[in-house]
Each structure stands twice: as structure tokens, then as C-alpha cells.
Amino acid sequence: MKNRLKIAAYLLLLSFGLMVVGMSCEKEIETMTLPPAESLVIDWSAFPNNGTKSAEEAELTKVNWFNSAATIFVWNTVVAANMAIPTVAYAAAFNNAPVYLGDNTWEWSYSVTHKERTFIAQLTGARIDKNTFSMEMVLSEAGGFGEFKWFEGVIRYDRTEANWILRRSPDKPDDYLEIAYDKSLETGIKNIRYTVIDPQDSLYNGYVEFGIDPELDLDAHYTISGGDNTTQIEWSTLNKMGRVMSQDLFGDANWHCWDSELNDVDCRVAE
User: Could you tell me the pTM of the whole model?
Assistant: First the structure.
């Protein structure tokens, strides 16, 4: 009888020990981190500004820079009107910790206030495979619209690529923008492009792209395309010098340059 009890106790201890070992060997699930905001939002503030100079003066002595700034402003105004709420909501996610839901899925749940309106956000990330994961943002408004999937995307785990679809609004839930982002970890080159994909929009198939290439003297650029015209804008983030090419703005296919004070300058001098 004593031997049987000893054997039973031994087997119980053995099974408990194996269970503990098994638990300790389980791989700890790593918390999902958010894609950088730059994968979703163009940095409109990157373009050099005119300081305190008047618009009248800019139109006289800074024509090349002024036309570039005006073109960027038009796209910024149009796109920002449809991106303000989801952009604010996504930025707030970085101040909140996610909860693990199981099955390689994480959720950020929080509220955010924008212009005296309160929104409830549910941002969910789920693993697709060893290289990619998906994310979607569902928003609702306190006292306003119900749950609305404002944007969704597929992102590489190394954050070198992201592709998003953004919808216009709860009142008009059409797919509005396709957002494509890519970045080289080796060179630091990065680009983000907004393409209008709503066939009912006047800018349908038009796009604006912002990019950085640290290897170039004019290391930043916007490319803006709509209709039959494409405007190329390049400048230095170090000294503000830049140039623009646009058949629509200038009636030719030449570069038009400005110096570090944003004044018009012959491009041969700027080189």
C-alpha cells in the first residue's frame, strides 16, 4: 500500500513538473506595435513656409515657390477635410495600450475629442502571416453616428510597407483614398502616395506623393497629378532651395527654381 502511494505521489509530481516546464517553454506573445503615423498621413508641414512675408510680395518675387505652395495647399485642403477625424483618432492610439484578444489579434480601445466632438475608437490589428498584419479603425461618435469602419490596411511587420483604404465619411461611406507607403531601412528613402479612388470625385485617379531621399541635395519632393497635368516639386530640407516643373503652371516643361530665401532664381545659378 505504501509503495502504491509513493508511486502515485511520484507520478503526480512528475506530471506537475512537466506541466510547469511546458508552460515555461511556451513562447511569450509579443505585443503588437502600431505602424508609424507617417505610413498613413502625409507631412504637409515639410514644405518650406514664407515666414511673415505677405502674399503680395510672394507673388512678385517668389513666383516659383508661391505656385508650388498654392498647388500643395489645394490638395492639402481637399484631402484634410476627409482625413481630420481618422487622423486625430489614429494619433491618439499611440497614447493607449492594446489588449490581446487571442488568435494573434490586438485591440486598442479608447475615446478621443476633436473640436468638441467625442469619438470612440476601436483599432484592431491581426496577424495575416509571418510578414504582414492587418489593421482596421472603427469609429463611432457619442451622440452621433454609429460604428463606422473608417480605414483599413495591410502592413509589413518590419514597417517598410503599408497599404491603406480610407473611406470618406459615415454619411458617404465610399472608398475615397488609396494610401501606399514604402520605406527603405538601408537608405532611409521613403514615399507615401494618396490616390483618389472614388469615381464620383472630381480628382478621381489623381494623386499626391510626398517623399524623402537623404542621398539627394534636393532631398524632399511632392508629385501632384490630376487630369492631364503633373506638377513636380523638389526642395532641400536643409536650406529650403527648390524647384518646380509644371506645364499647367508655367506653360513649359522646364524647371523653375528658388533660393534659400524662396526668391526666384535662374536654375543654372541654383545648380
Answer: 0.86
